Amino acid sequence: MLRSLVALHCRLGQTVVFSQRHLIQRQQSLVSHLQNARCYGMATTERKKFYEDVSISQGEGGLYEINLDRRKLKTPKGKLFTVPNEALAIAVATEWDAQKDTLKFYTMHMTTLCNTALDNPTQRDKDQIITAALKYLETDTICYRVDEPPGLVELQQVEWDPVMDWIEKRYNVVIGSSSSIMGPQIPEETKETFRQHLNSYNFWALTGLEYVITQLKSVILTFGMIDRYLTVEQAVLLSRLEEEYQIQHWGNVEWAHDYDMYELRARTAAGTLFVHLASESSTVKRKLLQD
Question: Which of 13, 30, 47, 117 lies 20 to 30 angstroms, CA to CA, from 178?
């Protein structure tokens, strides 16, 4: 699973009238993006490459560092860039090693996630991250159903119902779905179950989980992917089901649609890989990356 995620991450670099639910989700994503953007303007910029070799080394406390020639990588706030295990260090170093003449920071999702965990630009603790992530459960993509057209109603039932059945059985919870603009009434017991589950992750993994949830706008699809019930491709397609349906019927600007799809896959794959690697307790065989 992790090998396939690494491969996908490296490989990937509607016209629809949005409902109120879509607007709420977009506002949530925008707030999260703006909060991080205050500290991470570099994520959308480019810069001429200034190094030749990339390597990793183990420093104080067993943490791993990234070396660009003889310079140690630092975070946007100037902290020494360190990660908790070698597997994550190799993933980050691979991003830097893959850059050509120009550094395209917006393609370096693993590096950005590590910077977020290290600098914590919004100064949140685990409980605050969990609370923010669980807000997406109230507007979860697959909880909201349409009454018409019949084709989309049937498509949602066929594609989303199995995922809903799976998560309710997997976590022994009740979620449900609704075609009301208010959405389903999520029981407090369900929220508490998910809160306890999220609390079992460390701060780094939670940073990745929240990132994936904001990409898919779905706690359910994110859990399905992290638990290996869904692949990245499946989760992304399910998160865009309404949009894909509209495109099939009304057409689209092909290049824009493809770009959005690949970008979402890349971000989702990186976030999922980050969660798994940040949760990794064992280390892989130590090596230096070479050309």
Answer: 30
On the question of pLDDT at 4 being above 70, the answer is no
The maximal CA–CA distance of the chain, rounded, in angstroms, is 62
Q: Which of 5, 204, 1 is nearest to 85 (CA)?
A: 204
pLDDT in tens, 231-265: 999 999 999 999 888 888 776 656 566 788 899 99
**Phi, psi (degrees; rounded to nearest 5) at 284:** -95, 170
d(Cα 283, Cα 200) in Å, to the nearest integer? Answer: 20
What DSSP state is assigned to residue 179? S
The span from the CA of 116 to the CA of 88, in Å, is 14
Sign of the Cα pseudo-torsion (253, 255, 258, 263, in order): negative
Q: How far apart are the first and last CA of the chain?
A: 26
User: Could you tell me if 95 and 108 are in contact, meaning their C-beta atoms sit under 8 angstroms apart?
Assistant: yes
Q: Are 158 and 211 in contact (CB under 8 A)?
A: no
In this structure, what are the phi and psi dihedrals at residue 77, rounded to the nearest 5 degrees?
Answer: -90, 5
Structure tokens at 261: 């799809």
Tally of CB atoms within 10 A around 108: 21
Collapsing DSSP states into helix, strand and coil, what is residue 65?
A: strand
Residue 168: CA count within 13 A, CB half-sphere: 14
